[in-house]
Inverse folding.
């Protein structure tokens, strides 16, 4: 039987993960894009089941205790985020392609639980912190303290990128090129 593949997309804030995921939705319509679960409050125009399954902290904790998450983390000190095992394991067992945006912790957790020949990590990076800083500030104004935290995260993530299967440079003005490079990586990996 053909085994499925799980493609993990990660990278620093502002690197283009969301852009790549939108592109991959169009390029791989048959792929499975599992939803995240979170305990944070939905933002305006967000609905349960679109991008997130919104859970109470009690529901989330019950699912942790039951071992239902492939990976989970507490983000910004109080909100839980996680990926349920069942939708991913079922899709992989059916030989499907699964595409998931994760963070560093998520990659490490998933790589411990699934066979290495089924998991491909693709790290998206930017030319420099200054370039990324410019992109982040173009999207929205954020406090200096948060920017400093994101810079520290960027440095940790760049170190972690060495552990990933592929690293793809996301340069401004070259969206088609970097999305195309990720598509090529995925097609090569699917063919084996």
């Amino acid at each position: 039987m053909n085994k499925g593949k799980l493609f993990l997309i990660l990278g620093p804030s502002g690197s283009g993960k969301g852009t790549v995921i939108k592109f991959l939705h169009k390029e791989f319509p048959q792929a499975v894009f599992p939803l995240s679960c979170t305990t944070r409050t939905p933002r305006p125009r967000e609905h349960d089941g679109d991008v997130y399954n919104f859970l109470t902290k009690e529901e989330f904790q019950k699912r942790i205790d039951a071992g239902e998450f492939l990976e989970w983390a507490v983000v910004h000190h109080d909100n839980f985020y996680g990926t349920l095992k069942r939708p991913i394991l079922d899709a992989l067992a059916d030989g499907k392609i699964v595409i998931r945006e994760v963070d560093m912790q998520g990659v490490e957790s998933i790589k411990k639980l699934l066979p290495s020949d089924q998991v491909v990590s693709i790290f998206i990076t930017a030319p420099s912190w200054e370039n990324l800083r410019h992109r982040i500030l173009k999207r929205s104004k954020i406090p200096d303290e948060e920017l400093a935290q994101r810079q520290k995260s960027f440095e940790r993530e760049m170190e972690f990128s060495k552990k990933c299967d592929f690293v793809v440079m996301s340069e401004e003005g070259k969206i088609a090129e970097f999305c195309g490079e990720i598509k090529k990586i995925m097609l090569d990996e699917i063919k084996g």
